What does this fold into?
Amino acid sequence: MSKLILGLTGGIGSGKTTVTNAFAKLGVNIIDADIIAREVVALGSPALKSIAQHFGKNYLLADGQLNRKLLRQKVFSDETSKQWLNSLLHPLIRTAIIIQTKEATSPYCILVAPLLIENQLLKLVNRVLVIDVLEQTQIARTMRRDGNSEEQVKSVMASQISRNNRLAAADDIINNDTATFAEIEILVAKLDKKYLTLTKMH
Ligand code: ADP
It folds into this structure.
């Protein structure tokens, strides 16, 4: 019997963090691709050294940490730089994900990744749970959470897979448009039971 690995994804502001926290409350181990993506370029990491060599020392802040904002701007406007960075970071991120899923101690674990589908992480998971909301909900909630403009949210959405293509990859879907936080906890408890059963058969 091997452990079931669930991939949890959704667009910006869909409710991934909200749903993930509900699973974590039930004791499910969470592997967060965003956290790993930051860890692989932490101070003193070989990847950070490579980035400074490739793009220049001005991509580091005064304290030696990565200047994420500058790097984000660079790769947003330059496809070659984006490819270079992805080919450096993606294998490191995949390796860290695999290690963390092996270290997980709960009966099944969750890999939460906004770009699960876009970054070819589907191969690392056994099932996919998509958190789905209408685009207008996504925009309104993200604007409220981050204080961003509609244009800023839409530009992030444009860099992510379309709602329909994301739903096409789903084994399970949580519709988070009208659910209250209490209702989400009930839905998550139901899914948890299902995953515990599935992991026994896995
Ligand atoms: P993601 O992690 O996918 O970007 P979040 O979980 O941070 O999304 O949710 C985006 C925002 O919407 C947060 O401020 C969160 O509190 C709020 N939110 C999430 N789900 C609901 C819901 N069902 N009803 C009301 N607000 C919600």
Residues 79-103 form the longest helix (25 residues).
